Amino acid sequence: MLTVGLTGSIGMGKSTVAAMFAAEGVPVFDADAAVHRLQGPAGAVVAAIEAAFPGTTGSAGVNRTALSEAVLGDDAAMNRLEAIVHPAVAAERAAFVTAHADSPLVVFDIPLLFETGGDARVDRVVVVSADAAVQRARVLARPGMTEAKFSTILARQLSDADKRARADIVIPTDVAMDDTRAAVRRAISCLRAPTGG
Length: 197
What we know:
Layout: E1 2-7, H1 14-23, E2 28-30, H2 31-39, H3 46-52, E3 57-58, E4 61-62, H4 64-71, H5 75-99, E5 105-109, E6 124-129, H6 132-140, H7 147-155, H8 160-166, E7 169-172, H9 177-192
Parallel strand pairs: 1-5, 1-6, 2-5, 6-7
Antiparallel strand pairs: 3-4
Helix pairs in contact: 2-5
């Protein structure tokens, strides 16, 4: 099994590209979706998050807005949160690998792949990228997003240029959708080749 880390900064179109990999029959582990399950109603990390950050959970699970306000811009708080969430996500990832043990290629959709050292745990890295102006427009169009919040998020992420430099394959998303899909198909062919890209 060849393991591929799929990553990209906020607003780069990573979810769209992940869906394209899945549509081509490649199993995709979505780290964000795993976090949502773990933090949802009766999620495995809800009690620990409430203990560490009182008032950030309720009957629907974690209140993501309240939790974001509690940790954003506070490195110590973010580290506490990551110490709760990351091991639980790792367990979900291990179960995914077991479930797809017969697949020649699997993709791990991980937003902070480089920032968490996850690139050392995959065989290849695919980075999703777009022009900075396209990225900014996409992100600022999101509900509740502000320039300040966007800047804070970017500050926690490796720059797009650094990610591109460290990638085995770069998928552009500031082009026509069909061009992005074609790039995904080329990437899959390359990754499935005997040398693995």
